[in-house]
Design brief:
Order of helices and strands: HHHHH
Number of domains: 1
Shape: elongated
Structural class: mainly alpha
Strand content: under 5%
Helix content: 55-70%
Largest sheet: none
Length: 97
């Protein structure tokens, strides 16, 4: 369900958004919704990866939060040039299981 909300946008930015949406043949409101969703998803990924990289979130927690499977999460880390938060001991311990 979509609910209305009000935000204040700088005139210059709003004019640029309107111009770009018009050139793309899109409705301004739909385009703003698209930008908001895209920005939210990007911000969410950045924040979760930062928590994971700082050891404040496990890989399982991070991938669950982002609704990704293991391989998608690993690909995301690779895209962002981030490394797995795993020590040699972790790998050796997992090999024993």
């Amino acid at each position: 369900m979509k609910r209305p909300t009000t935000i204040r946008i700088d005139d210059t930015l709003l004019k640029a958004i309107s111009r770009f949406a018009k050139k793309a043949g899109q409705d301004k409101t739909q385009y703003i919704r698209f930008l908001l969703l895209k920005g939210f998803e990007e911000d969410r990924k950045e924040r979760v990866i930062k928590l994971y990289s700082n050891g404040k979130m496990s890989m399982e927690e991070a991938r669950t939060e982002l609704e990704l499977d293991v391989w998608e999460f690993l690909s995301l880390l690779e895209e962002r040039n981030k490394h797995l938060n795993v020590t040699t001991e972790d790998w050796l311990d997992s090999a024993k299981v």
